User: Which sequence fits this backbone?
């Protein structure tokens, strides 16, 4: 369990469209741009080793994109360096946060002052349960979706996964747009995230493409 007092008030952020990190989940990343190599080097020098994943948000009249107000911070738990200086890393989700303000400075990457208030459940020791989860019905829907999109799955692993691992892994892995990923991130509970996920899957099965949650 991560205590609120252990979390810093300012973190580096990585605005990567469509990349979703959720608490207690793992996100592999390939880091190669110089500014993000610098971000990783600086993060590894801190006790927390945190990087905030945030969806970029368009700002009318500006070339540089803004940031959505809610992101998720991950701790660097695995990393390896390639011969040409790139990194393969894994972030383990620690807690969502709310962006207070972006910090201007001399780093090549973006940093934000953040608040961790309101996300206590993210930092609990065990996985979150979904008391209203009809798993059989959900898996039948998922089977139809995978068949329609010619996707492969390890069904035994899906059946054996706990509620949080199943819902969060699918939220991260399925090919939804950035705004839909943001809606999944901001879901206040696992049950709400599962309902959002079902809505997105059903929309795609009816032939919809692009972001639904706009």
Assistant:
């Amino acid at each position: 369990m991560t205590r609120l007092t252990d979390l810093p008030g300012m973190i580096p952020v990585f605005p990567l469209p469509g990349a979703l990190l959720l608490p207690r989940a793992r996100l592999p990343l390939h880091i190669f741009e110089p500014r993000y190599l610098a971000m990783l080097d600086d993060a590894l020098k801190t006790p927390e080793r945190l990087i905030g994943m945030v969806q970029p948000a368009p700002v009318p009249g500006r070339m540089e994109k803004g940031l959505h107000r809610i992101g998720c911070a991950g701790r660097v738990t695995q990393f390896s360096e390639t011969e040409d200086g790139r990194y393969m890393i894994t972030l383990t989700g620690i807690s969502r946060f709310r962006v207070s303000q972006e910090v201007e400075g001399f780093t090549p990457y973006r940093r934000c002052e953040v608040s961790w208030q309101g996300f206590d459940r993210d930092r609990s020791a065990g996985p979150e349960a979904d008391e209203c989860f009809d798993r059989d019905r959900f898996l039948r829907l998922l089977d139809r979706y995978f068949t329609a999109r010619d996707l492969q799955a390890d069904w035994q692993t899906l059946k054996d996964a706990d509620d949080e691992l199943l819902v969060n892994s699918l939220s991260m892995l399925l090919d939804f747009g950035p705004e839909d990923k943001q809606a999944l991130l901001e879901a206040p509970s696992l049950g709400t995230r599962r309902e959002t996920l079902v809505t997105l899957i059903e929309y795609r099965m009816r032939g919809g493409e692009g972001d639904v949650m706009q």
Notes: The chain has a mean pLDDT of 91. Helices lie at 34-44, 135-148, 155-160, 163-173, 178-186, 190-205.
